Amino acid sequence: MKKFYMILAAVAALTITAQAQETGEIQVGDPESASTYNGSYFDMSPTNFYLAHTGSQMIFTPDVLADLDGKENVKITQLDFKFYSESYEEIERNVKIYLQETDATQFAVVDGKKQFFQLGELVYDDAIDVDLLEGYGEDCYLTFPLEFDFTPGSGLIVTIVFDAEDDDNCTMGSDYAPFYSSGITGKAMTYTSNWTSFVDYAEGDDFPDATAMLGCGTNVDLPLTNISYTYDEPQPTAINDLSEGKTVAAVRYYGIDGKPMSQPQGIAIAVTTYTDGTTESVKIVK
After folding, report:
1. What's the whole-model pTM score?
2. Residue 286, domain member (yes or no)
3. Buried b or exposed e, range 45-55, using 16+ CB within 10 angstroms
4. How far apart are CA 224 and CA 210, in angstroms?
């Protein structure tokens, strides 16, 4: 029998790798020093609870998402938005979230009017209950679990639509639960109405124009946002290489007694077969 532990000469460094799923979070804005919005309720992203229907679009540019660069198989899995509860209301909303990748870093302007983007992929559609009394005077989060494949190096457009059954289920006066600002100005736009959903607005003749006459805020800050994600991190399982300039077809492992192994353990022999039909072997320690 051929002794596979006979090490061939002239080997260079190769890393045989597996992959393990990791998790991460991007924090847009500083939650410790962020301030709430001081402008009108229609300048608040992702929503306000004063009106029955709101819509927001937000551009998270590649520099904001730079932590994703170089990672593989990235999935965005959750969005969190921080707000300050100052109302005694219990609010019910149906929420739709649309995501899409983009090369744009700002909203387009046509004839002096900022332009909303077309809606992206629907990734969340559910009814939520927000008990503002329970969190009165405290910082709270709206949390949305989702799943969206993302290409590192791209920007991300997030569209969020909040709809009430009618305008009775809304906060009163100035108690509209202001959201915290990341301080990144002009990367969000909003839509507000007591009668028409943003989804219906997006299907109407006025879309994609955004003007104050249509109840739109056009120079809004990104809200304080946590973006959770998963990705694949290569994990080395063995180090040793076999040859430069060749393409590996298969790698098999054997014990020093010549018996096959499904995974290398202890002292093993890695036998690499290349697409040109040649084979090389090297002893590894695992």
Report:
1. 0.76
2. no
3. bbbbbbbbbbb
4. 23
